[in-house]
């Protein structure tokens, strides 16, 4: 069993665990309570039930992209850069939920979501150096964060100042 985790299955297990941790932390920080329900939102906002399936798909594709890039990258610095890019993205992903929902600061979250979008773009470049397919699998993430940024901006416009 340990031999399997250290070999081919190791990157898969680590990527899956990291995706679950980031998704779980973000979900825990997402509080859809009275404050959120009182916000004015644009008519084009996706329904709340859609966010879970979309994020599940994005985290699955991100984990697959990470495994593809890790397996294709040479050992050493290249893998270190991949880990750093994924770690930065994970922290920014979690942070957005904390800033928007827990701190109730959509205005600050708007700045944070720009950093998150840039981290996804960086992730696409880092993964793309080793796996073209991995980079393509990250495109829905970039698009979704772009949609989230537009939604965040609309909420700030409709509800500010905070």
From TrEMBL:
GO terms for biological process: tetrapyrrole metabolic process. Pfam families: TspO_MBR (PF03073). One of its GO terms (cellular component) is membrane. The keyword ATP-binding does not apply. It comes from the Bacteria. CDD domains: TSPO_MBR. Keywords: Membrane, Transmembrane, Transmembrane helix. It is found in: Membrane. Its main location: membrane. It is a multi-pass membrane protein. The keyword Metal-binding does not apply. Signal peptide: none annotated. Coiled coil: none annotated. Belongs to the TspO/BZRP family. This is TspO protein.
